[in-house]
Amino acid sequence: IDVSVGTAFFLMGGFLGYAAGGSVGTLLVSRLGFAGLLWLIPPALLAVPLLYGTRIRLATDVPAGTTPDRHPAQGKDGASFSFWAVFFMALPAAVATEGIIWSVPARLKELGFPLTMGGFSNMSFLLGSIVGNVTWACLAAKRNKLLFCLAGYLLGIPWLLAYVETISSPAAWGLLAGAGTFLVAPYTLQVTMARYARGLNLGGRMALMVGGTWGLAGLAVPLMAKIAELVSLQAVLNWLWTGYLFSAMLGAGLMWKNRSAQPPAAETETASYS
After folding, report:
1. DSSP label at 34?
2. Which of 122, 191, 198, 212 is the Cys-Cys partner for 22 at CB 3.0 to 4.6 Å?
3. For residue 26, what are the β-bridge partners?
4. What value, to the nearest 5°, has the Cα angle with vertex 173 and ends 168 and 176?
């Protein structure tokens, strides 16, 4: 199985939990007040023994000399990317995604929708991302993953713009689900690319790619909240698409730089896929 496909199925659990948590959380608060969130503590505690029982172990670096120095994580050419290039390509999109998750429920509340509508809309966005993650990973298997990252961003931006323009409609959540299908899918491919990228060790790359991107994106939310106070929530929503565009531009620059640095075809060795 291609590494990106396995990664997509692995991340599916996190996205599914995140999606369900937003919907369940708003339902509990609407029925029981903020004290209703206490009901989310037992499932979290139950996850500890379950995780321990699975005996999952973190992947470690393979000793030098036992595997090829390069892995075709991004396509058939077998070229290697710098980890930091992949990381900073993923970061603007992560900021935009965090902005959507934060601002959509608040904006819908301003428009007069019940609190549960915000949770349902976020759940739709994340469920769409699950479908997109798996589909995009299967399509990109053994192909140029960077190219599929760019395609995902460029195909998803129109869906997000359409949602922002029609957010006052009760059926607009369908457009948000479409946006999630394309806009979040590149992240899975970027995790795969980071796994085989140059720089740091495997644990450091995975920690920064999985935790660092979303941690830094979360820190951007207070800044977006301040902008919303000074202008409006709608203004923040209107410009979130630029985060995905910026990630696409960084990816395009990385692709151009990588292609210009490629050796002649006769000198390029064929690498095997995991």
Report:
1. G
2. 122
3. none
4. 110
DSSP 209: I
Where are the extended beta strands (E) located within the chain?
Answer: none
- The alpha carbon of 158 is separated from its chain's Cα centroid by a whole number of angstroms, namely 18
Q: How far apart are CA 101 and CA 123, in angstroms?
A: 9
Is the four-CA dihedral 193, 194, 200, 201 of positive or negative sign? negative
Tell me the one-letter amino acid at 269.
Answer: E
Q: What angle do CA 2, 18, 183 make, to 5 degrees?
A: 55
- What letter would DSSP give residue 82? B
pTM: 0.80
What is the rounded distance in angstroms from the CA atom of residue 98 to the CA atom of residue 103? 8
**DSSP state, 172?**
T
One pLDDT digit (tens) per residue for the chain, 274 residues: 567 777 776 677 776 776 677 677 777 777 778 787 788 888 878 878 887 787 766 666 654 444 444 444 444 434 478 999 999 999 999 999 999 999 999 999 999 998 889 889 998 998 899 899 889 888 888 788 999 999 999 999 999 999 999 999 999 999 999 999 999 999 989 998 998 888 888 888 988 998 899 999 999 999 999 999 999 999 999 999 999 999 999 999 998 887 765 555 444 444 433 3
- Do 136 and 230 contact (CB within 8 A), yes or no? no
**How many residues can be counted in the chain?**
274
Helices (H), the chain: 3-32, 41-54, 83-110, 115-140, 145-165, 173-183, 185-195, 202-207, 213-230, 233-239, 241-260
- Report which DSSP code applies to 231: S
Which has the closest alpha carbon to 216: 58, 30, 88?
Answer: 88
Q: How many CB atoms lie within 10 A of CB 7?
A: 19
